[in-house]
Design brief:
The protein is rod-shaped, with a radius of gyration of 65 Å. It has helices at residues 8-143, 147-161. The model has no long low-confidence stretch (mean pLDDT 88). The protein is mostly helical. The longest helix is centred in the middle third of the chain and has 136 residues, at 8-143.
Length: 166
């Protein structure tokens, strides 16, 4: 037997064994392998479809989130505008109230000053009257130290009043 030239019986049995292996593979192996490949193909197709749906869902969610962010920004600007408006109204009201309060305080101060001025004038008049009486009293005492001076003074006053002498 030579390695390069096989005998006819060996070729026959090799052909029978090869045929049996091919038959077993075709009958039992290939259907399992093909069904596994088909399952894998279906799984990949489904995964691609799910990925496409997920991508579309992600795009939709991004669009929704962007719309929500835009709406939130608009609401924020509206709230800030309302807050500024309220702040201006409060400040204006406070200024007006402060102006009114200042006017009331000024009016009360003017009234107080006027009352104090009147009191001061009255007090000065009293003091002037008291001083005048005291000065007159001193002057009269000096002039009327003598009895003749007193009688002359009384006569003169009576003449001014026009009361007849007794």
């Amino acid at each position: 037997m030579s390695l390069l030239t096989p005998e006819l019986g060996l070729l026959f049995w090799m052909l029978v064994a090869f045929g049996a292996v091919v038959f077993v593979l075709v009958k039992f192996g290939f259907p399992i392998i093909l069904s596994g490949v088909e399952k894998r193909k279906n799984y990949i197709d489904e995964s691609l479809l799910i990925a496409k749906q997920a991508r579309e869902e992600l795009a939709r969610v991004k669009a929704d989130s962007q719309a929500l962010i835009d709406q939130t920004r608009r609401e924020q600007s509206e709230i800030l505008a309302e807050a500024a408006k309220s702040r201006d109204m409060i400040i204006g009201g406070a200024k007006e109230k402060a102006t009114e309060e200042a006017a009331k305080i000024m009016e009360a101060a003017r009234e107080q000053i006027a009352l104090e001025k009147e009191d001061a004038i009255r007090q000065i008049r009293r003091e002037v009257a008291t001083l005048s009486v005291e000065i007159s009293e001193k002057v009269l005492r000096e002039k009327l130290d003598r009895k003749n001076s007193q009688m002359d003074m009384i006569d003169r006053l009576l003449d001014e009043i026009n009361i007849p002498k007794s």
